[in-house]
Amino acid sequence: MTSSITTYSNLPDSNQAGEQIGERVQAAFNGASPDALIVFASSKHDYGALLRAIDRTCHPRAMVGCSSAGEFTNDAYNEGAASVVAIQSSDLRFYPLLGRGLRGDRAKAARDVVDNLRGAQSHEFAYRAALVLTDALAGNADDFVERLTTLTAGKYQLFGGGAGDDANFTRTHVFFGTEAVPDAAVALEILSNKPIGIGVRHGWQPGSERMRVTDADGMRLISIDNAPAADVFEEFARKTRQTFNRADPIPFFLHNVIGIETPAGYRLRVPLSVNADGSIQCAADVPAGATMHIMTPKTGSALAATQTALEQLNGHRPSTALFFDCVATRLRMGRDFGFELEAVKQALNGSGYAGCNTYGQIARSDGQFSGFHNCTAVVAVLPA
């Protein structure tokens, strides 16, 4: 049996916010400690004070989380707040894991996570999953997720995202117990004998003809079809009667992202800025030689992701859900992002959820588009 509570605090004082959250969790579980507690917190918070207050108030056995760029639960959508999901379960097992030093040695950070997975050495549980939260600003998050997949031989479902900092893109943290750690990735291993549902959907479609990434360097897109990347976006804006200002391109980029063709579908990349040489800085790596489109938005990705996740429970009731969507989606949709959240709530039909806007989303689930994404809704549903 699995029970859960989702809650949040809008209090600006981090110590008071943590105590408020902890007291609500403790009351929901009649004074018992949660087996796992997942925290999402705005960069306006003093993370250490917040986490310590939660810990001393409700004493979670495992606590992980990340800084965020918009926090939500089934009851509220906030910016500058903190949201959590707390879980008690006699069926599920939770184990927190940490990999440090992503910038210096991603391979070691991935091994540090995988080497401590309990399910890899046991056949007691039929289903293995891990919530993965990473400092996406450390770069090469796609490579890190691929390493996790390879090291686990694809036997773990992965879901999560890149930590945020309220769209400042300056410094992000993951949470491991009461510690807030930059340049790191945290994981929460989840072992179960009931299926865990994961749904992955993006709300975008090709808006341009097929093109080739002729030069790229990590997160810097240099040329498309042998032309400076910014020139190609500028020409697309002219054809589609949009405004493209190189000095302030974000209003355009929020509605026009990069879609990399793969056999499983389009992997999205969000452009962030235009460099002096006409290259474009992106939120995640763009592979040189890839086939791409400029993508335009459509709606319904959060609902579709939730429905897929629920289907994967194979008839088991949902207990709680975690929902991650891109900060760029929130900025693009504005108030309409609330309709996406309401769609998730309605689809869950009474089960709670919590989550945040992230800098990239992580998903690896059989039969679905796997890896590190941008502008993609990821929903994970835990069974009751």
Overview of the molecule:
By secondary structure, this protein is α+β, with helices and mostly antiparallel strands. It folds into 2 domains: 284 residues, no CATH class; 93 residues, no CATH class. 24% of the residues lie in helices and 39% in strands. It is built from 9 helices and 27 strands. The strands form 4 sheets. Strands 14, 15, 16, 17, 18, 19, 20, 21 and 22 form a 9-stranded antiparallel β-sheet that branches. A 6-stranded mixed β-sheet has the order 1-6-2-3-10-11, covered by helices on one side. α1 packs parallel to α2 and α7 packs parallel to α9. It is globular and about 60 Å long. The mean pLDDT is 91.
Topology:
Elements: E1 2-9, H1 14-28, E2 36-42, H2 47-58, E3 63-68, E4 71-73, E5 77-78, E6 82-89, E7 93-100, H3 106-114, E8 127-134, H4 141-151, E9 157-162, E10 174-176, E11 179-181, E12 184-192, E13 197-202, E14 204-206, E15 211-217, E16 220-224, E17 227-228, H5 229-239, H6 250-253, E18 257-262, E19 265-269, E20 271-274, E21 280-282, E22 291-297, H7 301-311, E23 318-326, H8 327-333, H9 337-348, E24 352-358, E25 361-364, E26 371-373, E27 376-383
Parallel strand pairs: 2-3, 8-9, 23-24
Antiparallel strand pairs: 1-6, 2-6, 3-10, 4-5, 4-24, 7-12, 8-12, 9-25, 10-11, 13-27, 14-22, 15-16, 15-22, 16-17, 16-21, 18-19, 18-22, 20-21, 23-27, 25-26
Helix pairs in contact: 1-2, 3-4, 7-9
